[in-house]
Amino acid sequence: MLLAHFAGLSFSIITIFSAALPQPPQDHSTGLSAGSVLPSQLLYPGISSLNATSAENKITISCDGPRYGQNLRVTSCRDIFRFIAKADHQITFGERGSQVTYQAPLPYRLQSPDGVCFVQVVLKPGKTSGHMSSTEIGQAAYTLFDVCVVRRGYGGIAGNPGGDNNLEVAIGSYKPSVRCNTGATPGPPWRSCVNIFADMRADRDPIVFGQRGPGVQRKLPFFLQSMDARCSVKIDSTTPASSVSTWYELWEAVNAISYMCVRQKEKGGKATRAGSLSNIYLELSDLSPDVGSSVMTLPNSSAVEEDLLSPMNGVQNFSAEAASPSLVLNVPFEIMNGTLWGNSSVLVTTPDDGAQVGTS
Q1: Predicted TM-score (pTM) of this structure
Q2: Where is the signal peptide (predicted)?
Q3: 276: part of which helix (H) or strand (E)?
Q4: Span 30-86, pLDDT tens digits
Q5: Helix (H) or strand (E) holding 8
Q6: Does a structural domain hold residue 298?
Q7: Contacts of 131 (CB under 8 A, 6+ apart)
Q8: For residue 338, what are the domain limits?
Q9: Among 102, 211, 242, 335, which residue is least crowded by beta carbons within 10 Å?
Q10: What Å distances lie between residue 252 and 118, 129, 201, 203, 342, CA to CA?
Q11: In-domain check, residue 299
């Protein structure tokens, strides 16, 4: 039983869920008001990943509003789960541009169709690569969604999600400044645009972008183009003044346009207000770069990420588990479906009864 097997932890966990967590409202369609943060590295006994090699592998959850956002929109975060396939094969992730051998580059982000919520895979501090499955990403994200987003309105991060446990999964908020095209002309293909945000730089080193002048490190306009030349991103500024930004900020913008416009509406789009002066914009389309402009054609080296983000028709995903209008369990979908892990005990919190211990 959970109380006997985890005697040192059960009381504190029950106290946390019965005393510190307010009961969720009847309507989960809006973000919840902020409250006190759950303790960092909260331990969930008995919850293991599908491919864990040890029964001692346990997901840890930390809800962190200041870092990952507050008042997250529940419906937006729920929409992400239809993009996460249930697949158990292990995928190696590594920092893009590094010397590490990897199949999928980091940062790796899945984003809601309205752009305001994301699930992101990150490296655990001190690690250079890690592997986990798409199912394990979904499990960790779903646990975060239930415990942090639904119950608290907070973003957060999950540790020990499975695989080799060198990776962590975060859920958080993003404030897009994106406008999608509205004309009848279709936009660029999704897979072509995945090639861009999967293979472009995404480091956080500050760079001076500008049209001209001393100190400019990256002259604008500048184009990123997919290998098949069917998707391109124009990066330019609305004023001659130079502006400081990072490739990470620009990567976030390209990712947002791709999810909000290309994937959701099959259109191109434009992101604005990037850079220290809010004068950098990014325009994603299927148009060829301007003649004489600086163009970087990106190698299509992230086929695994393209497959991850473009699941085939009929592939099972997590959308059914996240579709409930009244989520009450703080455990992954396997436990909701009746699979009990580890010591065959789970901690269940309901809006009516407070904390309860369920045993097989």
Answers
A1: 0.74
A2: 1-22
A3: none
A4: 222 223 233 323 333 223 222 223 334 588 999 999 999 999 999 999 999 988 888
A5: helix 7-15
A6: no
A7: 90, 91, 92, 93, 163, 164, 166, 167
A8: 2-175+310-359
A9: 211
A10: 11, 21, 11, 11, 38
A11: no
Closest to 142 in 3D by CA, of 90, 64, 81:
81
Q: Report the amino acid identity of residue 113.
A: P
Distance CA 62, CA 16 (A): 13
Q: Are residues 209 and 152 in the same domain?
A: no
Which run of H or E residues covers position 88? none
What total number of domains does the chain contain?
Answer: 2
Across the chain, mean pLDDT equals: 75
Gap between the Cα atoms of 163 and 133, Å rounded = 7
pLDDT band at 308 (very low <50, low <70, confident <90, very high): low
Segment 231-251 mean pLDDT: 96
Task: Judge whether residue 249 has pLDDT over 60.
Answer: yes
Same domain, 189 and 267: yes
Burial 76-115 (b: 16+ CB within 10 A, else e): bbbbbbbbbbbbeebbbbbbbeeebebbbbbbbbbbbbbb
Condensed to tens digits (0 to 9), the pLDDT of residues 129-185 reads 999 999 999 999 999 999 999 999 999 999 999 999 999 999 999 999 999 999 888
